[in-house]
Every structure is written in C-alpha cells, then in structure tokens.
UniProtKB/TrEMBL annotation:
Coiled coil: none annotated. One of its GO terms (cellular component) is plasma membrane. Residues 846-1030 form the TH1 domain. Pfam families: IQ, Myosin_head, Myosin_TH1. ATP binds at G104, E105, S106, G107, A108, G109, K110, T111. Keywords: Actin-binding, ATP-binding, Calmodulin-binding, Motor protein, Myosin, Nucleotide-binding, Repeat. PANTHER family: MYOSIN, UNCONVENTIONAL MYOSIN-IA. This is Unconventional myosin-Ia. GO terms for molecular function: actin filament binding; ATP binding; calmodulin binding; microfilament motor activity. Residues 11-659 form the Myosin motor domain. It comes from Zosterops borbonicus. Residues 536-558 are annotated as: Actin-binding. Belongs to the TRAFAC class myosin-kinesin ATPase superfamily. Myosin family.
Length: 1030
C-alpha cells in the first residue's frame, strides 16, 4: 500500500495490510470498529471492502465526487469513489483497460456498488451533449437489468439472479461512447418455480402493476398477480419498492415497437405458466390461454399445441412423432481502437442448508475468481518489486487450482462426468453419477462422499446419501445431487424451436435461430454445465486481458437492520471472500511502501539533519532520515522510487514518533508565536502610552489655565451678583420700613375710631386665639407614641383648655386603637375579641382571670389532625370546631373525677371517652341554660341544662378545666352567635344544680386542704356537696 497523508489509527486501520496482529478476530473487530464510526469502506492494499450499512449515508454527494477526483488512491479516506477514480485515470492516462470485480453474497450491496461506480465515471467524464446521452444510458441501464434479472429472495429484496459484466467503452479523451452488457448464469429455473417467501423476476410484477389498462388488454393480461401460476398464484408486494414507478423507469433507448415486442414475449412467458402439464396433453386448440398466446405471437394454435405435447425423433431416414410425458411437457415451457472499463457484478460464494446445481456452478465461478484474484495480486506485487529493484521472495499461499481442476478437468472433472452421464444411453440418474464420481475421485483430498468416507473408515453423520462434499477455499460445501442431471441437460426440443421460428413475431424468431428449417442440425445442444464452463473461460480470458480492481461486499446482518453488525456472520463472509489470504499475500514481503518525496515530507521532522529543510535528493533524504531512527536493516528496503517497510509495527512506531515530534513542534511554534505576539503588543502599548502621556500633559496644562480663567470669571460674576443682592436688600428694607410705617399709621387711625366700643373683646379674642394656636402647634410637635398601651398625654398649659385637652386625648387614643385594629390579621382579631369578651366576663370578678392574660387562646389542645384516633370525634358534630380540650367530669354520686374529651363546635358540645375516642354526651348549644363558676383561681364550673332538653333529664354537669377562662369565653361567644342571646354566667361561691335524684346545693370553700391538681369534691348528704379549692 501507499500511505495516506492522514494519521494512522491503530484501533481501526484504514488498510488491513497494516493490521497487527493479523488474526480473523482482529480483522473482524477492525471492520466492526470502522462500521461503528460509519466508515463502511476499508482497504486491503488497492482492494476495497464495502460493508452494507442498510441506510443512506451522506458520502455520495457532488462534493465527495470532487474530493476523490484526480486524487491519490491512499491520500483520502477509503471509498468506492477512490477505486473508481483510480481505474478511470489508469484507463484514461495510461491507456490500460480496466476491470472492476464486485463480489459478495446476496444482500451485501453489489448492485449498489456497481451503480456507484458507473455514476462516478459518468460524473467525472466530459460534459458534451453526446457524452451526457451515453452517461444517462449507462446509468439508466440498471432498471432494465434489474427488472429482468433481479428478484426478491429470503436474504435480499433486490437480489441479482445473474452475473452481470458491463464493458464501458471510452474514446481517447476518456469520454464514454457506449457499453456492452454480458450476463452469466441467469437463474432460469426461477421462472417456473421459487420457494415461498420469494418472488419471481421483478418484470412480471412491474408489468402487472405499472401497465395501463389499455396495454394490459392489448397483452391479454389481468392485473391480479394471483391469477398466474408462475407467480405462485399469490399477490406479492415489497415494502419500499414501487413496482408501478419502476416499470415507468425501465424503458431506455428502445423504440415503441421494440418495447411492445418485448412486453409481448414477457406476457407469453407469464401466460404459459397457466398451461398445466397434467391436462396439456389433451388441450383443445380453442383453449383460452393457448389461443391468446398464439394471437400475441402470430402462430396457429395447433402448431403450438403439437410442439408442447409431442416430439419429433429422427433415426436415420425415418421420422417418428412421439407423445411427451408430463415431465417432458414441463420442460418444454420457457425457463428464460477503444478503451474499455469492465464492471463485473456476480454472485458471491454461497453455502445454504441445501445446495444444488446452481450453488455448485456459482461456487465454481467464485473459485475461478479467487484464483485470478490471488494470481493477479501476486503478479502486481512481483511486478512492483522488480520495477523498484527489490528482491522478490516467493510467497506461500493456498493455490486453489486443484479445486478448479477437480471441477473443470476435461476428462476427470465433475462437469465432464456430469455431461457424460447426460449423454450416456441407458438408465441415467443421480445414483449412477455419484457412483462414477466416487470411483474416479475417491483419493482426491478435496472430494468427499458417504462412500469415500466409509472407505476411509470415517464416520460423518453430516454427509447424507446422494450428496458429495467439496473443500472449497472458503470452506466445505455439501451438494445434493438431486436435479443435477435434469438441470444440466437444459434441453429445448427442436419442435418447439421450429414452432417459435414459425411465429409471426420478429423478436421471438430472433431468439430461436436454431428453429430455421434450412439450418437443421442433428448435433445435440450443449449442456448447461458446458455452457457455463465456456462462459467462465471467456470471462477469465477477458479479465486476464485487463487490469483488475476489486470490491468485496459484506452483509453485516441477516435482518437488513441499519448499522447493526453481527461478527459471526461477517466472519463467515471474510472466509468466503478469502480476505485473510489476500492480506497475507499483500504483506508477505513489505507491508508499506511510499514514494520518497511524500515520505520525506511527512517524517522529515524526526531527524535534525532533514528538519526543517533537506537540500539533497528525496531518496538520500529518506535514507538519512531512517538511518537516524535506528530501525533494523531487515525492516527497510530502498527501491528506485519508493521506500519499503516490512512490518506494520515499524510503521506504527514511526507514526507514533511523528505524532510526539509534531506535538513538540506545535508547542515550540506556539511558544514563539506567543512571545512575538506579547512583544508586539507591548511595543504597541508602549507607543500608545507615550502618546497618551504627551496629550495628557498638554491637556492638564490647558485645564490648569482654563481653571484660572474660570476662577477669575466666576469671581467677577460673584462680586457683581453680591453688589446686586446688597442693593436689592437695601431696597427691600426700605420698602419694608415704609410699609410698616404705613400699616402703623392705618392701625392707629382705625384704633382711634373703634377702640373705645369693642377694644376689650377684640383684645381678649385675639389673645385666646394666639394661646390656642400656640397650644395646638406645641401639641402637634409633642404627640405621644402610637402604641395602644401607652396612655400618656401632655397636660393642658391653661385651665380653660382642660376639657379640650381631655377630648383630644380620647380622640387620639381611639384613633390609635383603630389604626391598630386595621393592622390586625383575622386570626389575631378573633383572639383579641375573645380576650375582650373574657375581660368583660371575668375582670375583677374571678381571681383566675389575671393569670390568663398572658396565655394565648389556642382553642385546639388535643391535636385532632395529628392523632387519627380523635379524627372521628369531629365527624360526630358535623360542623366547625371551636375548641377541643381535655376536662375532668365530677361524679354526681361520690364527687370523684374522671377524664373526658370536650369538643366545642359552632352548634354542639361533645363529651367523649379519651380511651375509646367514643362520644359519651352530645349537647346542642340550645340545651344549655347557664354556667356557674367560683370567684377563686380554680377551674371548677357547673354546666346547667334545660330540663326539657333530651339530655337535660340526666342533670347538670360538673367539670374541671385547666383552661376555664378560654372555655367559658368561647362557649359564651358560640352560644351568643348560635342563639342570638347572651349565655347566663353566675360567679358565686354557692349555687344549686339539678341532678336526676333532685337538686344539690354546692358550696365552694377556699382551703389549703385542696389538691394542687384541682378542686376536691365531697358529698355532704344527699342534697349537699362541698368543693375545696386553693
């Protein structure tokens, strides 16, 4: 290979010749890594490996064409355009005929590769009108070829079922003049049978889907695919493929008459599939299908019927008409000086579960292509070594000539024996053929069968009966002999040829020249194997006469998924394509070679003697450069124009040193550039600083002079203004004096007129007004703070202002309270209202009241929301909660207390058991008739109920609460809100309660014997109770 100017990537080398270490695993891993980076092309020397991405990539644009046009093959990234450009320039500039061999299995992208090659050649050649016409014909020939030669298989929706070889002819300027297309091994058997899940050739579906109703009527066809036996009587459409549109794009360079004749023949083939052999022997001449076929080709129906159902046999001077058997009738239905650049798109190596005659001849062709590939590669290598004066060392490689000879030998080859069996009289079948192969090839090391294995005492269960195995270069392939003899015969009886010659159809007559009665030949027609062997021999001769270029296509997965890589599948194709053998041949001698000039230009920085400039010759410079790097002598060789490096490891070491040296040089360049830039910037800044300083000093001097001038001017203006102000003040003083004298004069005159009648009243009123004015002004300046708790107020300076002062104090205090109330939040307002209500109820009446002033009224002391156990208590009342607290209920019988939960809502009062959280008593507020409390600091209270209420029959309740003030206050507020009346409250030491057994008189006594935890109740007889409180 010749090196690229871009850095080498050891993880995903662009050329597999440089792969180190070289194993199947490392080769597949390199292809996978490049595929992951969307680099679908890789080199093996000048061989391009293409991995099908199954999606469109932006690498085929006109910009890419320009990038690869007239560039060195290894100067850019691997691409199919590179090999197309190299072949085109070799043909144009060196006058060497070229051939591009495209191989790979079905679905690997061979057809797309051939399209890309032709589109590139068309894009880079000249732009004349005639040239453009030829270009368009070359590019548009693909739809025709694909229509008649491609079909859907299980592996590929657009699989080429023939080998296509296209010779593109160029004139001396490199402009295309035309093309000749040859085909090899068309899969004719697909017309009459194909497996389920596949399709027949595209042309049948395109014709039925894209033809107009008038054309279909003219061809006597129906649009329904299910009507035709050759289409398996089923409708078949492909996602992403428009058969109708492809039919419109198919016709190229044909006249309307030629198109009509071609479609008529296609329709005849399609309709022949509806003539079933089981009843064809008794077919009446008026049968619809036969009659329509004869109308299309201009033939008498009786003639076609006789040709399909009988056979004429000549023996010496006698002619015998023989009726055909059903299988024979089945076989009678149809089964199918300038510069040159050839493009070969042909089957790849095939290994299926069941391999038949088609796979055998396909793999034979691939063996021949592998043979020419290896030999031409070795020839190129040897020619370059001789041209450069490097000693050529013979390369050991697997020579597959022995396999080719096994198949094609004219006496002992498999094809020769197959032809012999087909021509031998007597009983001929696959068993007799296998017996003959076993006899002649028993000792051949590349041939195996069940009998030869048994003779060698080898047990191989994978080799069935009526099968043989060949050890191909790509692996072992087992072939099933069933159908070999029938497919090899490929007989077309003379009666049918003569019938087609008798048709009044120009194209059909040209397809059967052997049917001409004047050219009757008794010679047997060649077999399919012989024809294919001859075609391969002609192809090999053609390829040997041209300079070969290779594109190896690889299918990355079986599901046609975009950018999915299956290593096991790719490894199998690497073996089929013989890529490892190719790499070994390429790197058997020297893996890397490059012209001295580019090599020296790329690596000259590694030696001080060649850096930065070498004044001698390129070869001497390269020798000096490599001598300083101390590589082993066996790693290097110097040709006439190129330097050769043996192992990739040496090249990678050279590239690593270059990258390290480039980094050092880049650092040095950056350092020098930064120093120059800093010095230049400093000099510019210094010049600017000097210039700015000079201007600044001049400006400062001018500013100082301006300041002096301004000072004198401002002084002069100030003095002038001062003189004016003084004069104005004197004038004002004079006017004031005059006005005072005048007002005095008027006042004195008025006084003299009115003084004697109202003098005392006016003076008194004037004095009072002045005193009030002074008082109000002084009060505004000495107002007390705005705090509502501050009741201070300035005293009145005069006694006649006492009432006024008190009224203003009250107004000011009420105003402060209003301001304070306006700032309160709703919750705070409610708390203060409760506190105010408590003050009205208990102030100066109960000793406990002062202690409650500092305690906020919380209302909820049980934590109902946090305790799910108590939440159902609130649901009993079904209204808004006002207060929740724990209280002690006094037993009426013995005076003992028990704990209870008290819930006060807007309409109810609930007493509940704290343990079970179950309500004991539920009172509506209208059932309460009053409350009695003591005047001491205890929490004892009596809840008086109306006797007419539902709960009143149980009597009044005696409770003890730690929040008595808040409880009574909120009960009073709630009661008043619910009933519109004030709740009667009795603060006394002695009151009467109503119990079910009668009224009880309760006396409250302040005693030190009372418990600190609450009042002590003692029963004194049946109708008295004493309560001791602290």
């Amino acid at each position: 290979m010749e090196s690229s100017s871009s850095p080498l990537d050891a993880e995903a080398v662009a050329d597999l010749v440089l792969l180190d270490p070289l194993t199947e695993e490392s080769l597949v891993q390199t292809l996978q890594e490049r595929f992951r980076r969307q680099d679908i092309y890789t080199y093996i020397g000048n061989v391009v490996i293409s991995v099908n991405p199954y999606q469109s990539l932006p690498i085929y644009t006109p910009e890419k064409v320009e990038e690869y046009h007239n560039c060195s093959f290894f100067a850019v990234k691997p691409h199919i355009y590179a090999i197309a450009d190299d072949a085109y320039r070799s043909l144009r500039d060196r006058d060497r005929d070229q051939c591009i061999l495209i191989t790979g299995e079905s679905g690997a992208g061979k057809t797309e590769a051939s399209k890309l090659v032709m589109s590139y050649v068309a894009a880079v050649s000249s732009k004349g009108e005639e040239v453009n016409k030829v270009k368009e014909q070359l590019l548009q020939s693909n739809p025709v070829l694909e229509a008649f030669g491609n079909a859907k298989t299980v592996r590929n929706d657009n699989s080429s079922r023939f080998g296509k070889y296209m010779d593109i002819e160029f004139d001396f300027k490199g402009d295309p003049l035309g093309g000749v297309i040859s085909n090899y091994l068309l899969e004719k058997s697909r017309i009459v049978r194909h497996v389920k899940g596949e399709r027949n050739f595209h042309i049948f579906y395109q014709l039925l889907a894209g033809a107009s109703p008038q054309l279909l009527q003219q061809l006597k066809l129906r649009q329904d695919c299910g009507h035709y036996g050759y289409l398996n009587r089923e409708s078949s459409s492909l996602p992403g493929m428009d058969d109708a549109a492809n039919f419109q794009a198919m016709v190229i360079g044909f006249s309307p008459a030629e198109v009509t004749e071609l479609l008529e023949v296609t329709a005849v083939v399609l309709k022949l599939g509806n003539i079933h052999p089981s009843w064809a022997l008794a077919l009446p001449s008026s049968h619809t299908e036969l009659r329509e076929i004869c109308e299309l080709i201009g033939l008498d129906p009786s003639t076609l019927e006789q040709a399909l159902c009988s056979r004429t046999v000549k023996a010496r001077d006698e002619t015998v008409l023989t009726t055909l058997t059903v299988p024979q009738v089945s076989r009678n239905t149809p089964n199918e000086q300038k510069k040159v650049m050839g493009v070969l798109d042909i089957y790849g190596f095939e290994i299926f579960q069941d391999n038949g005659f088609e796979q055998f001849i396909i793999n034979y062709c691939n063996e021949k292509l592998q043979q020419i590939f290896i030999l031409m590669t070795l020839k190129e290598e040897q020619e370059e070594y001789v041209r450069e004066g490097i000693q050529w060392t013979p390369v050991e490689f697997f020579d597959n000539s022995i396999i080719c000879n096994l198949i094609e030998n004219s006496t002992t080859g498999i094809l020769a024996m197959l032809d012999e069996e087909c021509l031998r009289p007597g009983v001929v079948n696959e068993d007799t053929l296998l017996t003959k192969l076993n006899q002649l090839l028993a000792t051949h090391k590349h041939y195996e069968s069940k009998e030869t294995q048994n003779a060698r005492h080898v047990t191989d269960t994978s080799l069935p009966e009526r099968c043989f195995r060949i050890h191909h270069y790509a692996g072992k392939v087992t072939y099933n002999l069933t159908g070999f003899i029938e497919k090899n015969n490929d007989l077309l009886f003379r009666d049918l040829s003569q019938a087609m010659w008798a048709a009044r159809h120009a194209l059909l007559r040209s397809l059967f020249p052997e049917g001409d009665p004047q050219k009757v030949s008794l010679k047997l027609p060649p077999t399919a194997g012989f024809q294919f062997k001859s075609s391969v021999a002609m192809l090999m001769k053609n390829l040997y006469s041209k300079n070969p270029n290779y594109i190896r296509c690889i299918k990355p997965n079986d599901t046609k998924s975009a950018m999915v890589f299956t290593p096991e599948l790719v490894l199998a194709q690497v073996r089929y394509l013989g890529l490892m053998e190719n790499v070994r041949v390429r790197r058997a001698g020297y893996a890397f070679r490059q012209l001295y000039g580019p090599f020296l230009q790329r690596y000259k920085m590694l030696n001080p003697r060649t850096w930065p400039r070498w004044d001698g010759g390129d070869r001497e410079g390269a020798e000096v450069l490599l001598a300083g790097l101390e590589f082993p002598a066996e790693e290097l060789a110097f040709g006439h124009t190129k330097v050769f490096i043996r192992s990739p490891r040496t090249l990678f070491d050279l590239e690593r040193r270059r990258q390290e040296r480039v980094a050092q040089l880049a650092t040095l360049i950056q350092k020098m550039f930064r120093g120059w830039r800093c010095r230049t910037q400093y000099q510019l800044m210094r010049k600017s600083q000097i210039l700015i300083s000079a201007w600044f000093r001049g400006h400062r001097q001018m500013k100082r002079s301006a300041l002096i001038v301004q000072a004198y001017a401002r002084g002069w203006k100030s003095r002038r203004l001062l003189r004016e102000l003084k004069a104005q003040r004197r004038r004002h003083a004079a006017a004031t004096t005059i006005a005072a004298h005048w007002r005095g004069y008027q006042a004195r005159r008025t006084y003299r007129r009115y003084f004697r009648s109202t003098a005392s009243t006016n003076l008194a009123n004037f004095i009072y007004r002045r005193l009030v004015q002074r008082y109000l002004v002084g009060l505004a300046k000495n107002l007390p703070p705005l705090s509502v708790t501050d009741r201070t107020w300035p005293s009145a300076p005069y006694r006649f202002l006492d009432n006024t002062n008190q009224e203003l104090k009250n107004i000011f205090y009420h105003w402060k309270c209003k301001k304070y109330r306006d700032q309160l939040t709703p919750s705070r307002r409610a708390q203060l209202q409760a506190k105010l209500c408590a003050s009205e109820l208990f102030k100066d009446k109960k000793t406990l009241y002062p202690k409650s002033l500092q305690q906020p009224f919380r209302g909820e002391y049980l934590g109902l929301k946090q305790n799910p156990k108590y939440q159902k208590l609130h649901a009993v009342a079904k209204d808004k909660l006002v207060m929740a607290d724990s209280v002690m209920k006094v037993n009426r019988a013995n005076g003992k207390t028990v704990p209870r939960l008290l819930l006060l809502t807007t309409e109810h009062l609930v007493l509940a058991d704290p343990k079970a959280a179950q309500p004991k008593t539920v009172l509506t507020l209208s059932d309460i008739r009053g409350i009695s409390v003591t005047r001491f600091s205890d929490g004892f209270l009596a809840l008086h109920l109306k006797e007419v209420s539902t709960v009143g029959a149980k009597g009044d309740f005696l409770l003890v609460s730690d929040h008595l003030i808040e409880l009574v206050t909120r009960l009073h507020q709630t009661f008043e809100a619910a009933t519109g009346q004030a709740l009667p409250l009795h603060i006394t030491d002695r009151f009467s309660t109503h119990f079910p057994k009668g009224d009880v008189s309760i006396t409250v006594v302040e005693s030190p014997k009372a418990s600190a935890n609450g009042p002590v109740c003692k029963k004194k007889g049946s109708n008295k109770m004493e309560v001791l409180v602290q």
